[in-house]
Amino acid sequence: MTELNIWLLSGTGLFAGLTGSMLGIGGGFFIVPILTLVMHLPIKIAIGSSLVAIVANASLAASRYTRTQLTNIKLGLLLCSTTVPGAIIGGLLGEIFSPAILSTFFGLVLIYVAYTMMASQDTSSQKQSYWDNPITTTSADTQDIARYYDKATAKFVGYRINRIPQGLGGSFFAGLLSSLLGIGGGVVQVPVMNIIMTVPIKAAIGTSTFIMAITTAVGALVYYYHGYIHPFVVAPLLLGILPGALIGTTLTERIGTTILRRAFGVLLFITAILMFLKAANLI
């Protein structure tokens, strides 16, 4: 392993940790292309290394988001009940459906979701309550309401979780596509929580990170069992991804929700383009 490769791996991990923790997507969308297209590693080694990196990224980010109450643990565990089966079924269906058709369809869906997230205000804004001092609120006011402290506005944000059945269905879809297309489930999971369940974007990101810490650990164990995880690839990735995760979580807490929504929309557009290129066998 040359010095150039070590620096490239660490830099890849740093960027993946930063964007992955900040947007709740893990970072695999960036790690796998770099390892395969730039470093010419076999795809299975790239995916296995990416999963280990995402586990570290998501675990570190989720621990911080949990302390700041951005992670809704109950919601995360609830959505895992459909995300995990969706991922399993997606893996089984991957040999049946044409990847080109799936990539094209999903690219179109991503463009629509990206436009929705970038052009509109936070869909959960009308469901939120802002308190300067939450201790003064009555139990009736806070019944079934989750809350977190938003450093960007210096206020506590309370929100209700809506349309749970639709959210569970969307979460199943997220797990399904994650296995079918090899993308991070957070690309779908965050819009599902934000648009369908009216969860504020910051809470959706924190909860998505928590979900990924659980789901990717299972996949990483499978790849480790088959011998696709190599320390000389994973170690430099982790050297970059851990400080990246710390920076990303700090940025998420301090920047405005509109910026986060637009940044996520841009990411979805980029992912959609990659899906179209993949469908055309250009990458």
Word description of this protein:
The chain is mostly helical and 283 residues long. It has one domain. Helices cover 72% and strands 5% of the residues. The chain has eleven helices and three strands. The protein has a three-stranded antiparallel β-sheet, with no helix packed on it. Helix 2 packs antiparallel against helix 3 and helix 3 packs parallel to helix 10. The longest helix has 25 residues.
- Low-pLDDT segments, ≥5 res: 123-143
- State mean pLDDT (0 to 100 scale): 78
Structural class by helix and strand composition: mainly alpha
Q: What is the share of helical residues?
A: over 70%
- Could you give a short account of the major beta sheet? 3 strands, antiparallel
Strand residue percentage: under 5%
How are the secondary structure elements laid out?
Layout: H1 3-23, H2 28-38, H3 43-67, H4 73-93, H5 99-119, E1 129-131, H6 139-142, E2 146-150, E3 155-159, H7 164-181, H8 186-196, H9 201-225, H10 231-254, H11 257-279
Antiparallel strand pairs: 1-3, 2-3
Any key phrases for this structure?
about 280 residues; mainly alpha; 3 strands
Compose a concise summary of this entry:
The protein is mostly helical and 283 residues long.
